[in-house]
From TrEMBL, chains A, B:
Top-level taxon in the UniProt lineage: Bacteria
Keywords: DNA-binding
Record bears the keyword DNA-binding: yes
UniProt protein name: TetR/AcrR family transcriptional regulator
Alphabetized InterPro entries for the sequence: Homeodomain-like_sf, HTH-type_Tx_Regulator, HTH_TetR, Tet_transcr_reg_TetR-rel_C_sf
Domain HTH tetR-type, first and last residues per copy: 24-84
DNA-binding positions: 47-66
Length: 211, 211
């Protein structure tokens, strides 16, 4: 399993990538405004002028960093995908490949979603506006989970998969579980993240069979 | 847990509900055409005239059954939700509340998705076009899973949940698993449904912990 999160992901338009810290801050302001606008109104009902107004930057400044509304949306999807990864990464630094770490990762994800509910609307709308970015987000996320499960199996603390398909199914199943628990308990509900994560973790740890 | 799939779901606009078998067939032709058009072009790029052309019905006939493009979309979401339920229902008639039945249900769902890939595009777009229908689809699906798990626990073949939150987390986790396995292996890939379902079922049956 390739450790995809260590690959350097190029910005969507490298010719326009900021070259200075100040430029990076301006690009960040635009992305944050895009998150707020796209996350509230959706892609079709958001114009570049709404983004620049919220970001408090001039229209010309926008075009210094992005060529179009589509391009800032694609950059935002990549940014949200990275934000999700970063929200979970710290709790994985200890005990990667253990079921306890997976529980902490799920709890961190649920907290992140509760605080950034727009993440669903943006990534879900990417299915229509930026299908390649949508698919990359889930493929990269599943690859990271698969990698952790492989570490857990190698360390002897998780069941080894029977074959590559088994390994891939596990990763996609756990990702789907996390995404839907985030939707139900992070966006639509306000249940305690730790309690939800503990319940989710019991399912993938012990299964449902009566022994 | 309420057995929601036994409730009679009213058509979206009961004043326009067909009163004859012929009317029901015409409404069905319109819904099938809507599925093909919305599923290919998406909501924004589909007009009522494309739907009526594909359905081979007059524009006036369309308005006999639906008031607007939004309304036919809402009816389609409800219809797709029902199609998913019906695709899975036959394999659940035997052994409801067992892990074997859940495996068969997942395999049936994966086969359905492989044959009707538009179902994802339509239900996912409902998040933006028909948020209430989107949420109802997942709440109803989760309620059906929760009901089956409750039967399994009552029959002593599945672990009992610790509390109502645990029961609800299990249902949403399993639904999320099924949805993402359908996306990965039904829409984006063509792996054997039975093999994928078996692998997914091992995860929820036995868990990942080394005993």
């Amino acid at each position: 399993m390739v450790d995809r999160h260590d690959e350097t992901v190029p910005l969507t338009n490298s010719a326009k990538a900021p070259r200075t810290a100040r430029g990076e801050r301006t690009r960040r302001k635009i992305l944050d405004a895009a998150r707020s606008e796209f996350g509230t109104r959706g892609f079709a009902d958001t114009g570049i002028t709404e983004i620049t107004r919220t970001a408090k930057v001039a229209l010309g400044t926008f075009y210094t960093y992005f060529d179009s509304k589509e391009e800032v949306f694609r950059a935002l999807v990549q940014d949200m995908s990275e934000q999700v990864r970063l929200a979970v990464a710290p709790v994985l630094s200890d005990g990667r490949g253990t079921l306890e770490a997976e529980e902490r990762a799920l709890a961190a994800f649920l907290s992140f979603v509760g605080q950034h509910q727009q993440v669903y609307r943006i990534i879900d709308e990417a299915e229509f506006v930026d299908p390649a970015g949508f698919r990359a987000h889930y493929e990269n996320t599943a690859a990271r989970i698969a990698e952790r499960l492989a570490e857990g199996a190698a360390a002897g603390v998780m069941q080894s998969p029977r074959d590559p398909l088994d390994a891939e199914v596990r990763a996609w199943a756990i990702m789907g579980m996390n995404v839907f628990l985030g939707l139900r308990f992070g966006v639509w509900g306000e249940e305690d993240s730790a309690a939800v994560a503990a319940a989710g973790n019991r399912l993938i740890r012990d299964g449902l069979a009566r022994s």
